[in-house]
Specification:
Elements: H1 12-17, H2 39-54, H3 69-99, H4 101-108, H5 117-139, H6 141-172, E1 174-175, H7 187-198, H8 210-244, H9 259-280, H10 290-331, H11 345-361, H12 364-394, H13 396-399, E2 408-409
Antiparallel strand pairs: 1-2
Helix pairs in contact: 2-3, 2-5, 2-11, 2-12, 3-4, 3-5, 5-6, 5-7, 6-7, 7-8, 7-9, 8-9, 9-10, 9-11, 10-11, 11-12
Amino acid sequence: MATLAPTARTAPIAEVTAFLPPARPTRFAVLRHVGPNWYASVMGTAIVASAGAALPTESLGFAGPMDVPVLRAALVTVWALSALMLTLVLAARIGHWIHHRDQARAHLLDPSVAPFYGCLAMALLAVGGATLTVGRYMIGESAAVAVDAVLFTAGTLVGLTAAVAVPYLMVVRHRVRPADASPVWLLPVVAPMVSAALGPALIPYLPAGQWRETLLLACYAMFGLSLLATLTLLPLIFGRLLTHGPLPLALTPALFLVLGPLGQSTTAVGNLARSAPDALTSAPLTSGPPASTASYVSALDAFAVLYGVPVLGFALLWLALAAAMVVRAVRRGMPFSMTWWAFTFPVGTCVTGAAGLAHATGLIALAHLSLTLFVLLTAAWALAWTRTVRGLVSGALPAAPPVPGPATARTR
């Protein structure tokens, strides 16, 4: 085993690239620092459209978001923007791999960058889900189903691969210390949870019987694997905060990433419970009478509430803690970076989770909570989007390191 002995833990990419073929900086140099974390901007934009469409405004005596022409037009515009951004980022990332292969390989060997490959899966899934819920009003239901089916399949396969490959690299290739623990580590294992949350929307479009039940149970399986993996990492993240203090200023927004698995799992169990009748009616889980199927459906409805309410409560606790840490970092001069997109997608999952609980329980308080979180989401999205555009126009953003934070790597 050949171990890389760095002289500075803050420059892992430079250490790794020394052993890789030389780069061609004059060819598409602007793409050199377009890392997988750029997919977070796609996720953060798509979730605005999906969360807006899911708002339980009917519980407050108003028309649904998609029934109001102005709101529908706004959400469709945001969805179209997310689809365009996905296309552009995919093209940029392909160019990155073609023209800056040394840097791309170095990203895989950097534990502060490699977890962002989970963002590719979540970007595909988020745009696919938004296409079915919002984009259908522009391109039609049939086309929206086809697009979502393709993006869901691709996103799920990429997400499952990342959930295995990235932890494997962290164990075999990376060298990390307890002080390096970061919420970024959650990204690859959260991707299957996004599949679990968005997969149920496709169940009614599958043939009745085995196909529908298979997708339902596959989503529950992905819910379980993502949840258990998250539970193994959260103690490491919180322990690092307690023993080593706050994260570096530029990485502080990443604390919001913890909200992702919390809000997304709450959304997942709600969506799965609502889809259970369509999936189980013609293919019951048991060979008993129809009452057996009804009992499963009832149990899944109860589980959605019994799980969702406590987890959403913890999400609100973490939101308050993370917000306080961000305020502290801002006072100390926290610079803008792509980590600011962590303010968007995780909060959006809490919007959809609260909205799902509001629909399931009929509680007006939960409807108000989802609306409040949506206002926070849109404000965060507008801030991150405008600062990103400003950074692209000025040229400062493409020239910046893709992900801040300490890390080291080793090779075998």
